[in-house]
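pinging the channel bc i need a second pair of eyes. not urgent but kinda urgent?? the chain im working w is below, pasted from the shared doc
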Amino acid sequence: MADVPDRNPNFKGPVILGTVDHWFDPNAFTLPIPGTFGNVSRGSFRGPGLVDVDTSFFKRFRISEQWTSQFRAEIFNVLNHPNFAYPNQVVFTGSSSSYSYSPSAGAITAAATTSRQIQFALKLLF
């Protein structure tokens, strides 16, 4: 199986589509000539960006001169922004005798981070 594809010289239009189903257009690539390496460099495409905003709130309550209580609220991914993983980079599938476009080429199938998470804690200091 070919390791790196060639750029398709006849392809017109944007290579990066930016959707979850097709992050890039697999028609922008062709198979290299057998026995040669493709001309698309590794790591030439970037995946979707990552946005992660975390915050926390603390409040201390003095119970006595020696005892203090602390309430904490911690929120991870405050904006609940979906952060997607890298797209499938396998463009061609098949054996050495017959290749075809992979149906999942350029598809994003996983998330890079979790959804919004909130945790509360109560701490006793003495």
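so Residues 6 and 105 are 15 Å apart (CA to CA). and The radius of gyration is 25 Å. — does that match what u expected or am i reading it wrong
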